[in-house]
Fold:
Amino acid sequence: MNVGAEGADASVAAEPMPGSEILRVEDLRTSFFLPIGELQAVRGVSFSLDRGRSLGIVGESGSGKTVLARSIMRLNLGANVEISGSAIFEGRDLLALSRREMRRIWGTGIAMIFQDPMTSLNPMVKIGRQVTEHLRTHSGVGRQQAKRTALDLLNEVRIPEAESRINRFPHELSGGMRQRVSIASALACEPSLLFADEPTTALDVTVQHQILNLLSREQR
Structure:
């Protein structure tokens, strides 16, 4: 897995054949067209990332780091947005793919850990079900195997008493635990490339260290 992150925690990661290129971004630009005019959030960004490596994207708050990651992944940025340039992932230009083709890549090919865990968690669904459904949708495993894997992942990201908390709703967990669930969900399908948007901001120092070690182990 390759890990990509932002801010102080920013980085990008991958799988087999260390040294081979997994992502190349060329002249990527993202503009929002607002009533007051055009807002250029990303201006001509270019970089490449090899498998098994991390890339840190550092900048002030509001400088476009999250927009850059969401643009590459083709995640919803709202209406009246224009993205240009190219983002070649494993030989395919993500910016040229249809939404249907992108759905086959999300989860197993590329995943993202959001700074705000509620961006990726459904407040109306128990956390265990969210992780297991993610596994079943993207990996095709059976219900029981998905449940076992989900529990293993929750233990791996240091959710205390994971066996009981797997049946909790997001609002019943602390902000730090919600972030750990979000990380577990992102890692569930072993993506080749992982974007991490300040993934440890809501965690205490000890858990930050544990999560960063986990992400480091996942790089290959």
In short: The domain at 117-218 is CATH 3.40.50.300 (Rossmann fold). The helical segments are 65-73, 99-105, 127-139, 143-156, 162-165, 175-187, 205-218. The longest helix spans residues 143-156. Residues 5-16 have pLDDT under 50 and may be disordered.
